[in-house]
Amino acid sequence: MNNTNQCPIGVFDSGVGGLTNVRALMERLPMENIVYFGDTARVPYGTKSRATIETFSMQIVDFLLEHDVKALVIACNTIAATAGQRIRQKAGNMPVLDVISAGAQAALATTRNNKIGIIATNTTVNSNAYARAIHSQNSATLVRTQAAPLLVPLVEEGWLDHEVTRLTVREYLKPLLVDNIDTLVLGCTHFPLLKPLIGQEAPGVALVDSAITTAEATAQALSAAGLLNSENPAPDCRFYVSDIPLRFRTIGERFLGRSMEQIEMVTLG
Amino acid sequence: MNNTNQCPIGVFDSGVGGLTNVRALMERLPMENIVYFGDTARVPYGTKSRATIETFSMQIVDFLLEHDVKALVIACNTIAATAGQRIRQKAGNMPVLDVISAGAQAALATTRNNKIGIIATNTTVNSNAYARAIHSQNSATLVRTQAAPLLVPLVEEGWLDHEVTRLTVREYLKPLLVDNIDTLVLGCTHFPLLKPLIGQEAPGVALVDSAITTAEATAQALSAAGLLNSENPAPDCRFYVSDIPLRFRTIGERFLGRSMEQIEMVTLG
């Protein structure tokens, strides 16, 4: 094991949602150091244009590269959908994982009837990135995408088991269920918090939580590149945000499932 | 009438919501030129910290001052609540109107039982700005504020008469109605679009639409300063945004009630 193996994994998102990925990474790769960046001053990205998202994303990647990361995890569907290619160009040989590639892969491995539904933000849906990722491997798969933008603020409001959230989920899922999907990708990092409710509203449909599948893909990529950290008695996890971390801490601990000790505010761009 | 009278009124908001103010200004002051700025690349402000909102707001004010505005209208409750004082310092003698001062004034003129409710974003509620503005004029008034953050994305989704929106409004209004308010301030520029639904859920309660009251206050301030534009055969209205204006145009026309011809994207900061 050389020094690079000790370097952290860089995980980033437009805000707090990517913490669901950090949580899954901590469980799957407990020996790894992690540096997280959440762009809380400019969140959400899901309603912004491709050009703006690319600019913001490259600023974040520059920041993480300065922190000597050994791999990048794009823990935001919107960034993966719009800026994934430019980030991979910039990263060179470094492993770059993202929630869309991992989610598409897992959905293909899960479906039995070859009918996959996707719920995501507007920008992710408009990018058509999930359909492209799935069709590049199986062009016969039916892919139905549905923008579900209201689920983000509903999760942030903490209405995880509220009648309003249930009705909203029901409305969004209706066209997907009509098309008889048997697999549903939770294509936004906020949505895993709604897994119980979505499961009730989509009985018999398998839910793909891209945080878990991305953590698995990260483990495989690090292993293949000989970059796993196998000796780390005190794994270090640092959180950076672009706005004062008060709200990030409150909501973030719900996403992460534990407390966050080191949160620092930095200014990008 | 001198040259200054021909100068535009500068109106600004974190995004699209301030267009409800532009609409009211166009109706109340049809001879005025208007320059609008919506910070669509960084919207929403309502969940960001005071320091970040101040920084962003001062960048917008600089931009509008470069456009030779004769008055400023802070068409965003969150900005008014957090950065209003700094904006007034910067503006010097120029009239500065804002939705909170105007809304508080109108609420005091409307209430009969001296019990006023406010619905707004989290940051506006936390700032306590409405209660301060009302109590500075009548300390005996009961002011009940309620954060209603979900109404913003519901309006942007266009669910203006949807069962989900109705249940959400009902939940938010419950504690205010228990306190027997007779006047409710729509303390966010998105909320006037929900006036019919809110009216049904709060029967007998007078709704204060701060867009209309701010337009009236602007007319009075311009008149008092001798700055009204009385000769303008072709009033000019320009819209500037910080992100590509596709979504701004679509949603904006719903807010403005007419089409927008001149929309330009600029980068601030």
From TrEMBL, chains A, B:
Pfam families membership: Asp_Glu_race (PF01177)
Protein's GO biological process: cell wall organization; peptidoglycan biosynthetic process; regulation of cell shape
Entries under Gene3D superfamilies matching the protein: 3.40.50.1860
Active-site residues per Swiss-Prot or TrEMBL entry: C76 (proton donor/acceptor), C188 (proton donor/acceptor)
Protein name: Glutamate racemase
Regions annotated as coiled coil: none
Keywords, comma-separated and alphabetical: Cell shape, Cell wall biogenesis/degradation, Isomerase, Peptidoglycan synthesis
Role description: Provides the (R)-glutamate required for cell wall biosynthesis.
Organism of origin: Neisseria chenwenguii
